[in-house]
Design goal:
The structure is a single chain. This protein starts with a helix and ends with a helix. By secondary structure, the chain is mostly helical. Helix 2 links the parallel strand 1 and strand 2 (about 45). It has 18 helices and two strands. The protein has a two-stranded parallel sheet with strand order 1-2.
Length: about 475
């Protein structure tokens, strides 16, 4: 059995008992010296108490003395290397040597376990002594983590996705910018719409020049379309500020006090919801500001020179075009396109008036589609270029001012007032018990972890003492 468990014999020590029962004239010298069965660690002989000694309750001390006397008498040369005291000393020495060999690995395992239980104990937290102080610490820690996530100075930086301030920056400069660029200056605006606006702005008299009212009417219609991307940008930033709570809510205190975590989420959500209408209103006002005054004197509005070019067009060319148009219309009128009704007077002014009123075609609600005259085409081109130029100026202003408004009215306001809002809403003596209540099993697990940690620390201390122990 020993050869199977310990083939090399490094851990096997043989013990020969009841040496006093051998017959007279015989001894166990050859066995004790390993001549019969060789054992690397040796063979130690013992003299045990007899059954009579056990019945008589013979003390161990007397039995050890009798054993020493027997060995000194029968095996004087081997007495110092046999007996119960020598066996105990040898076993202790072998144990210490074995421990020394296993110390590095054992010490590593003890340290790893101690570290694990220390982390577990930290996750459970210390027993609550001052609830008010603890609550303030948790609120301050949460507010600090929230602000650091926005500023990008958090200790635990995400590497898998954008979050916090980095995501807000992406929303401003990527999502919002692309949304604005997708809104074309002339999108949804046809040449017929422009021509109709020009004609409506001139009133009953044909206009010699491009009316400015038509330009303002159409450009305001296009500027109004920039409001929706701005409001969508506010919504995305609001969602990101709401999502930051998840990154800050994974702290151990939040897991330890679920009621407190719920209340903190409610307070932050309420604060964000309170700032959302204010921010939306500001974004709407930015668009309304642009609609309130169309600044045709804007330094970047260079296309306005087209109006000046139109006004300075040679009048002779324009008069020739008008005369040719009048000749064509007069010939068409003399041809008499309308038939004369039977029995109606033709030579009286009253008859002519009656014929004209009765036979005029119905006025269309929209301008019929036809080939534009050179003047109409020129006026439409001028309006289109003016709208495009001014729209790009306004879009650039909106692209710059909307992120600033969101940062001021939403992000910075929440960041600056978060801690004060949490303290005013949560720091109430009557709610300490509710907010800082933890489940009973957490206290039990904390006690178990503390006891195990103490045992491991004691084991580490013993290992250190064993390393310095003198081996005999």
């Amino acid at each position: 059995m020993a050869k199977e468990a310990d083939p090399e014999g490094r851990r096997t020590l043989a013990v020969l008992t009841k040496l006093d029962l051998m017959d007279q004239g015989t001894d166990a010298v050859d066995v004790l010296l390993g001549r019969v069965i060789p054992v690397k660690l040796g063979i130690i002989g013992l003299v045990n108490r007899s059954q009579l000694d056990i019945k008589n309750n013979k003390p161990i001390d007397e039995a050890v003395k009798d054993e020493a006397s027997f060995l000194q008498k029968r095996y004087p040369s081997l007495a110092s290397r046999n007996g119960t005291p020598y066996l105990a000393k040898t076993l202790n020495r072998l144990l210490m040597h074995h421990i020394r060999e296993c110390l590095p690995e054992l010490k590593t395992r003890v340290n790893v376990l101690a570290s694990q239980f220390q982390s577990l104990l930290n996750s459970f937290g210390e027993p609550i002594e001052d609830k008010g102080k603890l609550l303030l610490q948790i609120i301050t820690k949460f507010a600090s983590a929230y602000c650091c996530t926005i500023e990008g100075t958090s200790k635990n930086i995400e590497t898998t996705e954008l979050c916090g301030g980095a995501r807000i920056c992406y929303i401003f400069h990527e999502t919002f910018s692309k949304a604005l660029e997708s809104v074309g200056p002339l999108e949804g605006l046809t040449t017929l719409d422009i021509l109709t606006a020009i004609r409506n702005a001139t009133g009953p008299r044909p206009a010699l020049f491009v009316p400015e009212v038509s330009f303002e009417l159409l450009v305001k219609r296009q500027i109004k379309r920039l409001e929706e991307p701005g409001l969508r940008c506010v919504e995305l930033v609001h969602e990101e500020l709401q999502r930051i709570i998840q990154y800050c809510g994974t702290q151990q205190e939040m897991l330890r006090f679920p009621k407190l975590h719920e209340r903190i989420v409610d307070v932050v959500t309420t604060l964000l919801r309170k700032r959302l209408p204010v921010t939306n209103c500001m974004v709407e006002n930015l668009v309304c500001i642009e609609l309130a005054y169309i600044n045709t004197k804007h330094p970047d509005f260079t296309e306005v020179q087209l109006i000046h070019k139109t006004l300075t067009e040679p009048l002779e060319d324009f008069k020739k075009k008008e005369q040719r148009t009048d000749i064509k219309e007069g010939s068409a009128f003399n041809a008499g396109p309308y038939p004369t009704p039977l029995g109606s007077p033709q030579n009286t002014p009253h008859g002519m008036l009656q014929r004209g009123v009765n036979l005029l075609p119905e006025v269309p609600t929209q301008t019929p589609i036809k080939k534009l005259s050179p003047k109409e085409q020129r006026d439409c081109d001028v309006i289109e270029r003016l709208i495009k130029s001014y729209f790009l100026i306004v879009r650039k202003n909106i692209q710059d001012s909307v992120p600033k408004a969101i940062m001021h009215f939403l992000v910075n306001n929440v960041r600056d007032n978060l801690q004060s809002e949490l303290v005013s809403a949560l720091y109430k003596t009557v709610e300490f018990e509710l907010l800082l209540s933890e489940s009973p099993h957490i206290a039990a697990r904390r006690k178990e972890a503390s006891e195990m940690l103490q045992a491991l620390q004691r084991a580490s201390q013993i290992i250190g003492e064993v390393r310095e122990t003198h081996l005999w």
